[in-house]
Design brief:
The complex is a heterodimer of chains A (about 160) and B (about 110).
Chain A (H helix, E strand, L loop, with lengths): L19 E8 L4 H12 L5 H22 L7 E9 L2 E8 L30 H8 L4 E5 L2 E9 L6
Antiparallel strand pairs in A: 1-2, 2-3, 3-5, 4-5
Helix pairs in contact in A: 1-2, 2-3
Chain B lengths: L2 E6 L2 E6 L3 E2 L4 H12 L5 E5 L5 E2 L1 H13 L5 E4 L3 H9 L7 E3 L2 H4 L9
Parallel strand pairs in B: 2-4, 3-5, 4-6, 6-7
Antiparallel strand pairs in B: 1-2
Helix pairs in contact in B: 1-2
The chains are: A alpha+beta (about 160), B alpha/beta (about 110).
């Protein structure tokens, strides 16, 4: 029997050989974000439930931010999403043509205070905290009127 | 998003009908919560056992629901792993009373009622 070119020669679980690359496009408004999250969720079924759940949450926060801030809540605007899934790691790049991120930087990681009077409890401001927590060091680039955001999720536990 | 409402042993139990509490459903949840709790005086427990996804907009809706109760507690029950993770990472698990299950939140007899 002729052996296939040996996978065993390459013990690196992050080998390019097992990476799957997929592109998606989502329209803001209606169920656009929900729909694309569902499609991406189906794609990364095999990579383990914690990683998959984290990816869905981070991507939801990123896409909600683009819809709400970059496109100012306008319906029918395009967001491109490129996902590279491989065992233990998911790389994501989003692209949108909305307004630039303020100061051309990713908002910092800051958790809203919870030790405040009930009426002062935060109802927002958690999104970027969750993104930083689950996908450390996201990279933002603005080029040719396009916003690019790249982030990586991995199964390695995130330290504090 | 609809909220199913029932009263068990003097506890008002609210069950979101959707399995997702996200940006698209957050405002609807708050409105339904206001309608369901307006004029009530019972303890309020939200059963989240059917909710398998919640983002920060959904969390914001639950915080705003708490504020609608004007001093009464909002108790939560049956958090699935993803929902529990969002509460824990944002430390909002310290703001709510969280029960493992609705059964843990509802007294079997009046003698156990607070």
């Amino acid at each position: 029997m002729q052996p296939e070119r040996a996978e065993m020669d390459d013990p690196d679980p992050n080998s390019e050989a097992v990476a799957h690359s997929h592109c998606f496009t989502c329209q803001t408004g209606l169920d656009g974000i929900r729909t694309v999250l569902g499609k991406i969720n189906d794609l990364i079924l095999e990579t383990g439930s914690d990683l998959k759940a984290n990816c869905e949450l981070v991507l939801a926060e990123v896409l909600n931010n683009i819809e709400e801030h970059s496109y100012a809540g306008q319906d029918g605007c395009k967001i491109d999403i490129h996902v590279i899934a491989q065992p233990g790691t998911i790389l994501v790049e989003t692209r949108d043509e909305g307004v630039p991120m303020p100061g051309l930087v990713v908002p910092e990681k800051r958790l809203p205070h919870n030790k405040v009077a009930r009426d002062a409890l935060p109802e927002g401001g958690f999104g970027w905290y969750l993104i930083h927590e689950l996908a450390p060091n996201p990279i933002y680039v603005r080029k040719d009127d396009i916003n690019y955001l790249r982030f990586k999720l991995s199964n390695i536990p995130v330290g504090h | 998003m609809n909220l199913i409402t029932k009263t068990e042993n003097g506890v008002l139990i609210l069950i979101p009908e959707s399995n997702r509490i996200d940006a698209a459903g957050a405002i609807g949840l708050k409105d339904q919560f206001r309608i369901a709790t307006d004029g009530t005086t019972e303890r309020v427990v939200m059963d989240l056992s059917k909710v398998d996804f919640m983002d920060s907009s959904g969390l914001g809706a639950i915080v705003s629901a708490l504020k609608l109760l004007k001093g009464r507690r909002l108790e939560l029950a049956g958090l699935t792993p993803v929902v529990a993770k969002v509460f824990k990472l944002t430390r909002m698990d310290q703001v709510f009373t969280i029960h493992d299950t609705v059964g843990d939140a509802v007294p079997d007899s009046d003698a156990n009622a607070a």
